[in-house]
């Protein structure tokens, strides 16, 4: 008895299935697109401004350049996160972009911000030619 078996050779090509890989890739792409924040981070910073008893009502002007200083010391100029070294150049750039001839500055700093950080911002406003600067406080 002859026990030799003949193996049938398959003529089917061995290849990679590309459709499932495309599906997985698209799912990963959608996941990362939806979970990533676009634009500037922390454009609306949550800060606790200092409290005072006697202040006049202040209305923010159209030509104001707003510098927000967070509790961590991070600074934002009109919603753009800026390093302390670039404050002067960013304030100057924002002042040149304003339509009015004389922009004003606003400082919105957290109540726990140290004086040295506020002094740097004031110096940056002064170096940029902005002499009118307001400091945001909460009326109590």
Derived structural class: alpha/beta
Cα Rg: 30 Å
Helix content: 25-40%
Distance between the termini: 106 Å
Q: How many beta strands in the DSSP annotation?
A: 7
In percent terms, what proportion of residues is strand?
Answer: 15-25%
Q: How many DSSP helices?
A: 3
Largest sheet: 5 strands, mixed
Shape: rod-shaped
Q: Give the helices and strands as they follow along the chain.
A: HEEEEHEHEE
Give the overall average pLDDT.
Answer: 76
Sheet with the most strands: spatial strand order: 4-3-2-5-6
| Low-confidence regions | none
Short description:
With 140 residues, the protein is an alpha/beta fold. The chain has helices at residues 18-35, 87-97, 115-127; strands at residues 51-52, 64-69, 75-77, 80-82, 104-109, 133-135, 138-139. The radius of gyration is 30 Å and the shape is rod-shaped.
Defining traits:
single chain, 140 residues, alpha/beta, two-stranded parallel ribbon
Describe this entry's structure for a reader.
This protein has 140 residues and is of the alpha/beta class. The chain has a domain at 51-139. The chain contains three helices and seven strands. α2 (87-97) crosses α3 (115-127). The longest helix is centred in the first third of the chain and has 18 residues, at 18-35.
Question: How are the secondary structure elements laid out?
Answer:
Elements: H1 18-35, E1 51-52, E2 64-69, E3 75-77, E4 80-82, H2 87-97, E5 104-109, H3 115-127, E6 133-135, E7 138-139
Parallel strand pairs: 1-7, 2-5, 5-6
Antiparallel strand pairs: 2-3, 3-4
Helix pairs in contact: 2-3
């Amino acid at each position: 008895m002859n026990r030799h078996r003949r193996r049938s050779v398959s003529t089917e090509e061995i290849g990679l299935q590309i459709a499932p890989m495309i599906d997985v890739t698209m799912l990963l792409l959608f996941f990362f697109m939806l979970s990533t924040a676009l634009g500037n981070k922390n454009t609306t910073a949550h800060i606790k401004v200092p409290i005072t008893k006697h202040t006049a009502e202040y209305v923010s002007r159209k030509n104001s350049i707003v510098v927000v200083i967070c509790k961590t010391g991070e600074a934002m100029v009109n919603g753009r996160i800026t390093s302390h070294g670039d404050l002067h150049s960013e304030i100057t750039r924002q002042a040149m972009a304003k339509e009015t001839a004389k922009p004003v500055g606003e400082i919105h700093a957290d109540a726990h911000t140290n004086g040295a950080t506020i002094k740097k911002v004031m110096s940056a406003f002064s170096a940029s030619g902005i002499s009118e600067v307001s400091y945001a406080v909460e009326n109590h």
